[in-house]
Amino acid sequence: YPWQHTLETQLSKFNLTEIEAMLGSYTKVLFVRDPFQRLISTFMQGMGSSPSFSSFVQDVLDSGQHNASVACKPLVRLCQPCLVQYDYVVMFGFLRQELGHLLQRAGLPMDSLLPEFTDTQVQWTYSWLSEQMFSELSLQQKKQLSHFYRWDLAAFPFSSSFLSD
After folding, report:
1. Per-residue pLDDT tens over the stretch 87-118
2. Is residue 164 part of a domain?
3. What family name appears in the similarity comment (predicted)?
4. What is the pTM of this model?
């Protein structure tokens, strides 16, 4: 259905037959990241107008799952992993390993296309940053965030997430 597909067209704009045909013709890759790390990244990129991380989190919680920005919305709501059968799920923090496997499966040369990733350094930095940012939040905010992202935490293996507790 390339004549109907534009960058702005959402899947929900098509009927069920068209959706099934389109999804069946694509290789579907879902990139997932710990929801708390997504919040930190969104805040650090200045995508919220809040002066502190705690007030930014409160703005996200107050907006609710339906009205949250795309950057903060739970992945399960955005990507519908229970409805769409993704061919690959790539976890942030394992990009080099997983993208190499994905390129190999696609028959592409791995080494020439992959940028140099420093997953270990990135994981350590986000671990430290998560600890600092998490300590800024009230106990109520921590509980509300865990509830806000409960389906993401259930759907994906974010075992070391600060929100998993």
Report:
1. 888 887 766 677 777 878 877 776 655 666 55
2. no
3. Belongs to the sulfotransferase 2 family.
4. 0.77
